[in-house]
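Students often ask why we bother encoding 3D structure as a string. The short answer is that it lets us treat folding as translation between two languages. Here is a chain of 97 residues written in the first language.
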Amino acid sequence: MYLLDGNNIMGQRVGWHRDKPAARRRLIDELQRLAERLDTEITVVFDAPAGNPPQRLGRLDVYYARVHETADDSIVDLAKQRREDLRLIAVTSDRVW
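And here it is in the second language, the structure alphabet:
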């Protein structure tokens, strides 16, 4: 199981900063395919406008930061909830631990 910071991944892709909503959609599509190909669960969290509900797309869960929080805050919360899962791999370029 993977827990990813979607904004950090988008920041590493050339030109994706120009249109963040389109970049988010593209990354979600790529992660859906990856989750199916690897036969694993992937959770991605984005900094985004409040009010976006979580989505379950096949083996991919998509979350958005809550009001007055960042994706980093949400990643820490999700990791704590899943701390018993020894297969959890968190991927972020931020120092959130």
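Translate back mentally: The chain has one domain: 2-91. Keep this in mind for the problem set.
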